[in-house]
Amino acid sequence: MKSHRLQALALIVLGAWLFVSPLFLSGYESRSSAAADNAYIIGLLVLSLGAAAFLNARRFEEWVDLALGINHRAGPPHGSVG
After folding, report:
1. Contact between 67 and 53 (Cβ < 8 Å)
2. What would the pLDDT profile of 1-25 be if each residue is shown by its tens digit?
């Protein structure tokens, strides 16, 4: 049970970082680009699922986290192309 809580805390921290990363990293074209919008949405969802997992462990949350990670990786590229 203790390792589950550590994983949930890691999701909360990583989701928060993903959410604020467009504000601090120069790799995004702008704060309102498609990649930044994707980071805001996925970051908020990961943070929310991490908080839910911290409060109540459910197996499906791990699958949703995996799907969100795949979505973020396959989403729009960060930075300018060309």
Report:
1. no
2. 577 788 889 989 999 998 988 888 7
Structural tokens at position 8: 């949930």
Q: For the chain, what is the HEC assignment? A: CHHHHHHHHHHHHHHHHHHHHHHHCCCCCCCCCHHHHHHHHHHHHHHHHHHHHHHCCCCHHHHHHHHHHHHHHHCCCCCCCC
More confident residue, 22 or 30: 22
Residue type, 42: I
Q: What is the pTM of this model?
A: 0.67
